[in-house]
Amino acid sequence: MRARLLVFPIKGKKWCFSRSVDPFAAQSPSGVTPTTLRGLWKKISSESKPINANAELLVDFISDKMNKAWVGLEQAPDGSMKNKIHGFGLKLLARVKPSEIFLKSISKEVTSVQVTYPTSLDPRLVRRRLRHIAMSGTILHKKYLVGSVTLLPLTSAFMVLPLPNIPFFWVLFRTYSHWRALQGSEKLLKLISNQSNPQKPDSSDDADESKKNNSNLVKESQSPTCILLSSEELQQQIREAIEEGLDEASIVEICKSFHLNKNDVLKYRNLV
After folding, report:
1. 246-256: burial string, b at 16+ Cβ within 10 Å, e else
2. CA angle, corner 108, sides to 74 and 27, nearest 5?
3. Which of residues 118 and 207 earns the better pLDDT score?
C-alpha cells in the first residue's frame, strides 16, 4: 500500500508533515483481530507465530477495546460522568504532538510513500527533513514507550478506588501510541532511506550473480519505496504565506485539496 504524504512550510521554519486520508482506501478485513480474551488466546496458541507477531496481535486487541470504550464515552448523555471523562480526554489528546500523529499514520501495511511538496523546496532537503523526523521518532518514542510501560503497574493500583481509573487508561493509551509511533518511525526511515536509482554491478562479479543483481535492481527501480513529487498547486496555495505563517483559511484550503486532517495540521502552526 502506498501512503501519500504532504510536506510544506506552515510557519517560519516550522514544516507540516501529514498523511492524506484516502476516502476510497480499503478497510482492513473484519474478524482479523479477536474480540474476546478467549479468542485472543486461541489465536495465539493455535498458530505458531514469532513473538513480535503475537505482540502486534495483542496491541491490536487492546487498541480495539480502547476504541470501543472511547466511542461509548463519546455517545454518553451530556452532563453524565462518562461525558465529562470524554471532555477531559479531548483536552489530554489536544496535547499530543502532531509529529506523533504523523508517525502513527505510517502503518505496517505501508510499502511505499509518495511525498508531495511545494516546487520552491529542494527535494534533497525534503528527504533530509523526513529522515530527521523518522530518526528522532525512533529515539524519542522508544524512550517514552519504556517510561509508559514502567508507569502501568503503578497506575493500576488506583483500580481499588470506586472511580474510573483515568490515570491507568491514559498511560495505557500513551503506551499504545508510543508503540505505534515507534513502529511508524522505523517504517518511514526504512522507506525513505532506500535508493530508487539503480547502481551498475562491478564487471568483475560472477555472471550469474550479476544477472541476479540486475534483476533485483530493475524491480527496485520499477517500484521505488519513496517517490518525491513537487506540486505547483501546493506552491500556489502557500505563496502568500509570510513569516507569521499560513492563516487558518489557507490551511483549510490545503486540507480540502489534499485530503488532510485540519485539526492535525493546525497543531503544527500552534506548536510552541
Report:
1. beeebbeebbe
2. 55
3. 118
Give me 239's grid cell: 505563496
Please, which residues bridge with residue 118 across strands?
231
CB 161 within 8 A of CB 268: no
DSSP 239: T
Look-up: residue for cell 511538496?
A: 117
How far is the C-alpha of 202 from the C-alpha of 207, rounded, in Å? Answer: 10
| DSSP label of 242 | B
The strand pair at 14-19 and 2-11 is best described as: antiparallel
Give the residue from 144, 241, 230, 138 showing the smallest Cα distance to 189: 138
pLDDT single digits (tens) 181-191 = 999 999 999 99
- 3-state class (DSSP) for residue 28: coil
Considering all CA atoms of the chain, what is the largest pairwise distance in Å, rounded to the nearest integer? 77
DSSP string, 42-110: HHHHHS---HHHHHHHHHHHHHHHHHHHHHHHHTSPTTSHHHHHHHHHHHHHTTS-HHHHHHHTS-TT-
Question: To which residue does cell 509529529 refer?
Answer: 99
Grid cell 562479479 is found at 205
pLDDT 10s digits, 78-110 = 777 667 776 767 777 778 889 999 999 998 889
Determine the Cα–Cα distance for residues 33 and 31; give it in Å rounded to an integer.
5
Burial class (CB in 10 A: 0-12, 13-18, 19+), 150: exposed
Q: What is the DSSP letter of 246?
A: -
Sign of CA dihedral 44, 48, 52, 56: negative
Q: How far is CA 62 from CA 19, 33, 34, 35, 224, in A?
A: 24, 10, 10, 10, 34
